[in-house]
């Protein structure tokens, strides 16, 4: 019998497992393909300010809290794993391609200022001084010095090593069901056996709403196509996000000479196809903003599913099934929210108390507020 069985070994499940093991709990993670979910696709942006959406203020506060935890989390993780996670603190530049895009940028800036967030409007010349690779057609920019990035795959690899070093057991198997015993979660049924556990953490990403034995959860797959390119050493100082004729694209440098270009956002269920149109739009817009992208080597195309929820915020803490703890629904911010999710969930598992920062994100908010249903 393990204290905690974690269903899912993506960034979220592994980080929860690592933190819970560091609190003295025995932890088993079950995943038949750890790291192959949304965590493989993530661009690694830690960007609560440039991701801030209208009516998403609670999510913004959670994101800012998690961003503040990232430097210590990254340092501790690197020390435990012995490998780097690629935290970059060069900030994020958002640019507008044409006059309409710049108007959109001004609206975004006004919204950010209303919320008291730090963002500086730049002229086209100032934007190019910061990022000389920008096309001369770029019409203006917004610098958010506090929005950073990590190498999401490096974080996942480090979490695997750190969790193992902390005593977490990783079982490479498929989870078929949450087993209930006397009205509470009592473990996981795997393809080959039952894993009894005192508590179960649900961290199956976009598949969290589909597992038998789990109460109904509003988690849906939001498809994202993303590209990886090589040969980008020195091309960009930090993340560049752009509005290009009303469409969004981002370019995130990582790992010395690599670049992630993303991402589409599509409601197409679990469709795993990388489409010609998806790749075309991303490359077309990225090359419009940074023409040199056209000279890079396209090394990978990938489609994965963000775990979407009705208010774009995660599902954290206890569920309506006693013993079942939720750590899912992180949608487009799962990398950013990994530290706060791991630390709040480990606190709940170790003490029975969900920290205040996570309290607004329990699943019962959808019952309380019909707006989201
Ligand atoms: C294109 C794209 C770009 C993104 N960019 C960013 C970004 O820049 N910044 C950011 O913060 N977030 C980003 N995200 C979001 C982020 O990737 C997710 O929120 C995060 O990875 C979710 O992590 P997770 O561990 O919950 O889910 P996942 O990584 O999907 O992990 C779930 C795990 O569960 C396992 N699993 C599922 N079903 C079963 C089963 N029945 N049995 C056993 N195992 C199972 C899977 O194998 C998988 O390993 C992006 C997402 C996409 C798709």
TrEMBL record:
Cellular component, GO, one term: cytoplasm
Reactions catalysed, as given in the entry: glycine + O2 + H2O = glyoxylate + H2O2 + NH4(+)
EC annotation from Swiss-Prot or TrEMBL: 1.4.3.19
Pathway listed: Cofactor biosynthesis; thiamine diphosphate biosynthesis
Keyword Oxidoreductase carried by entry: yes
InterPro entries assigned to the protein according to its UniProt record, in alphabetical order: FAD-dep_OxRdtase, FAD/NAD-bd_sf, Gly_oxidase_ThiO
Uppermost EC category: oxidoreductase
Domain of life of the native organism: Bacteria
Residue span(s) of domain FAD dependent oxidoreductase: 3-348
GO MF assignments: flavin adenine dinucleotide binding; glycine oxidase activity
Xref: SUPFAM superfamilies: FAD-linked reductases, C-terminal domain, FAD/NAD(P)-binding domain
BP terms from Gene Ontology: thiamine biosynthetic process; thiamine diphosphate biosynthetic process
Keywords: Oxidoreductase, Thiamine biosynthesis
Signal peptide: none
UniProt-recorded name of the protein: glycine oxidase
Lineage, highest ranks first: Bacteria, Bacillati, Actinomycetota, Actinomycetes, Geodermatophilales
